[in-house]
Structure formats: structure tokens, C-alpha cells
Amino acid sequence: MRRIDKLGRIVIPFELRRRYGLTEGVKVEFLDAGEGITVRSSEPFCKVCRSRICDGATFPLCEACIAKAAKRYNERN
Ligand SMILES: [Zn+2]
Known about the structure:
The chain is an alpha+beta fold. The protein has helices at residues 14-19, 63-76, and strands spanning 28-32, 37-41.
């Protein structure tokens, strides 16, 4: 449980920040989900290493992780 302070602020648990790439300076958006609020990063991040990726990226991966995946793929085939 987290308590909201008098200014309406709340601390997002570390594990959730890490999992969703919510590092300092990342913009988030609040979505009214009917039964509660969904907080979502408005900036895309790599699903493997959590670094930020550019808007409009074809895959949800950074270039370094795409290169690693391609290398592994080429080693197997
Ligand atoms: Zn990555």
C-alpha cells in the first residue's frame, strides 16, 4: 500500500519502475480504467534492457538488443 501525500503525489514501487522503464524524466500518462487508474509510460522502451527507444520504432527493442538477437539467430542458422 502507498499513501498519497497532500499534494497528490505517490511513489511508484521500485520494482514496477524498473520493469516498465520509468526512470527519472520519463513522461507518464494516466488512463481512467473505470475501476481505477492505469499509469503508463508515454515513451517507448526496450522490452529487454529497459532503455528508451525512439518513437515509431518497428520493434519494441533497442538497436543493441536487435543486433544481439540477430547475431544469435545467425549463429543458429
Ligand atoms: Zn535493449
